[in-house]
Design a protein that fits this description.
Helices cover about 40% and strands about 20% of the residues. The protein is an alpha/beta fold. The protein has a six-stranded parallel β-sheet, sandwiched between helices.
Length: about 200
């Protein structure tokens, strides 16, 4: 299969690329690659699809949201998370439908914060929950047998100490386990499914 991985230079994205490459043609892109892509910029997403053409799978492992208490975050802070992590992934799907071959799959990324609260994570939780709701609903309406799933990873091994410190009591999950969930989504048959890796 021909698989587009967006966010390929990040910790999870790199692991996904390495897991898929032995069996598939992988197009690995991020903000720093050629072609570059910023999922928060709809024009950037459109240009990416124009350059890449038809694919059998699209994987998104990028997007961010600010941390802080609700009384510390502005509405713009929340909008930053929604635009980047939620609407950016929605746009990748929206524009990608025409470029995804029959029976192809979209695999998006939420995170454990969709279900496990930690301090300062309301903006990220809102974006994560939105991604999962979008995928569950879209699964029933995608054309031509296309599938859509979401990976919900916990904090992963190899994350920076500053990130690990935000998740007290969480055992970081191996990158190989997280990457395997993406492989199951891409190569499997399920749709509308949330793959939790914790």
């Amino acid at each position: 299969m021909r698989i587009l991985v967006i966010g390929a230079t990040g910790l999870i994205g790199d692991a996904v690329v390495r897991a898929l490459r032995p069996r598939h043609e992988v197009i690995a892109v991020s903000r720093s690659t050629a072609p570059p892509v910023d999922i928060g910029d709809t024009g950037s997403v459109a240009r990416l699809y124009e350059q890449v053409g038809s694919v059998d799978g699209v994987v998104v492992t990028t997007g961010h949201a600010p941390f802080g208490r609700p009384d510390e975050l502005s509405l713009e802070d929340y909008l930053t998370g929604v635009r980047s992590k939620l609407l950016g992934q929605v746009d990748v799907v929206r524009q990608g439908i025409a470029h995804l071959r029959d029976g192809g799959s979209f695999t998006l990324t939420s995170g454990i914060l969709a279900t496990e609260p930690i301090r300062g994570a309301s903006a990220s939780a809102a974006a994560n929950g939105g991604i999962e709701a979008f995928a569950r609903t879209s699964a029933a309406e995608l054309p031509r047998g296309q599938r859509i799933n979401v990976i919900r990873p916990s904090i992963v091994q190899g994350s920076p100490p500053s990130a690990l410190a935000l998740f007290p009591g969480f055992l970081p999950v191996p990158l190989e386990s997280v990457a395997s969930a993406y492989v199951r989504s891409v190569e499997g048959v399920r749709t509308g499914h949330i793959y939790e890796v914790s």
